[in-house]
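Because discrete structure vocabularies remain unfamiliar, we turn briefly to a single example record, giving the amino acid sequence and backbone structure tokens:
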Amino acid sequence: ADRIARILAPNLEEIKRAAKKMKKDKTASELDSGEIVQNGTLTSVEDAKKKAVEASTMPLTGYTVEHWGIYEINRLTKLSAEEFRAFVVACYGARKWTGADANIQGVKAHELLWVAGPKETDVITATDVKNFAQAVMKTRKPEERQAVMIGWGVDPKARAYAEQVMKLGEAKPIQFIKLRLWPLAGDDFKAHVTKKHDKYKDFFAFILPPDIPRIGVTRMGARHYRFDVSEARSMNTGGKIVNVQWDFDFRDGIFSATQGYQLCRKEKKGKGESGFEGDTTVEYTFEHVEPGAEITIACRVQDDLGGEGMKAMKLKVE
């Protein structure tokens, strides 16, 4: 992220040198920058670019701050409906809809935008398509009825209904409408957001944490145990587990990896393979724990796409 920020952000020293050459009467400057989504799930790319723009003392023609980042789906689902929709509308490059119809959330030129709720269960339904299509028809002329619906998922019945509505519009021009139904984490939405900078498309993604069904425990001896999370798997398409961390004194819900267990991975040894993969089996001796005492341990699993999940459990040390 830092490397990309340096590539995209202007060179501050060059800007400062150039600013000194400007006429003294030019005390005010104007920045042509896009609105920044203030959301805790962003990577440091946005922050670095924002600081670079704010530090500039001269106009930057055509410079925009794009809405790129690695967004954790679990965190986005905890946003309120208003916050979530504002985030999606901004990512799309649209602005908030200020009209009276509540079935429209955003507008970009002739395009109207509808966004589902923040929960993963808030999929686009046929009823949503019907209400949105009616709102678009009331608001726009036939030649301006370009509309997009975005949600975590799309009900097959919704797609079928949208196709029927568009087919009817082809037969009756007065009812013409073009509808696109996009999954938020799908390729279509990503392509739209990064269309001006295709080479940076990998820096815009929605990720899920790895699934950790259980922590396997085997007592090897007095206060000595083997722990196994080999059933853990990445939930992101094409993702692989690359690191496992352990906290053998997990307290107050705060994960702090035990010394020596921050980077549990091993080199791939398969034919034609290179790199590392997470080592899902470790051993540990609880030297400073009294026999019979109950403690809490935690395991954090990370995949190569930025997904990170944690599993905790109580253990009676014997």
Notes: The first strand starts at residue 69 and ends at 72. Residues 123 and 153 are 5 Å apart (CA to CA). Confidence is low (pLDDT under 50) at residues 1-16, 22-49, 56-67.
